[in-house]
Write a structure and sequence with these properties.
plasmid, Universal stress protein, UspA, globular
C-alpha cells in the first residue's frame, strides 16, 4: 500500500496538506502517515524539566492528531498512523521516509504569505531533484472545494 506522509505542525497550511493527503489516500486506496517532529532545542533544560516538557509536547501532538484522525476516519474512511520523532525537521522527514518503505509521497502545505512557502518547503525543494520520492506541495490558501476537485 502506498502511504502519503504529511507533517503535523502548528502552521495554517498544515490543514490543507492533511486534507489533500487524506482525500488522495481515500481515492487511491492508500494510507496516511502523520509525522510530528519535536525540535531538540525545546528541551535544553534540567533533565527533569526537559522530560516534563517532552511529555507535554507529546500530549499536545496526540490531541492535535486526534482532530485530524477523526476527520480522516469519518469523512474519508482513512485511518492514519501517527509517528513522533525528535530532532531537526528535514532530517527527521528524510529518516521517516527511509524507515517506512511504503511511504510513496510527501505532502507539504505551502504558506501563502509574503515570507515565502515556509522553511520545510524551502529546504526540501532546493534538493527535490536528488530526493528518492516525489513531493506534492499544496497551497495553504486553496479552498476546500478546489482541493476536492483536484483529488
Amino acid at each position: 500500500m502506498r502511504k502519503f506522509l504529511v507533517v503535523l505542525d502548528d502552521s495554517r497550511e498544515c490543514l490543507n496538506a492533511m486534507r489533500f493527503a487524506a482525500m488522495r489516500a481515500s481515492n487511491t486506496g492508500g494510507g496516511v502517515v502523520i509525522l510530528s517532529v519535536i525540535p531538540p532545542d525545546e528541551f535544553n533544560h534540567w533533565i527533569g524539566v526537559g522530560e516534563v516538557m517532552r511529555e507535554e509536547a507529546r500530549e499536545r501532538i496526540h490531541a492535535h492528531f486526534e482532530v485530524f484522525a477523526k476527520w480522516m476516519r469519518d469523512r474519508q474512511g482513512v485511518d492514519p498512523e501517527l509517528v513522533i520523532r525528535e530532532g531537526d525537521i528535514v532530517p527527521e522527514i528524510l529518516a521517516q521516509i527511509e524507515a517506512d518503505p511504503e511511504v510513496g509521497i510527501l505532502v507539504l502545505g505551502a504558506a501563502s504569505d509574503r515570507k515565502g512557502p515556509g522553511p520545510i518547503v524551502t529546504q526540501l525543494t532546493r534538493t527535490a531533484g536528488t530526493l528518492p520520492f516525489p513531493i506534492t506541495i499544496v497551497p495553504g490558501d486553496m479552498s476546500k472545494e478546489k482541493l476536492e476537485a483536484i483529488t
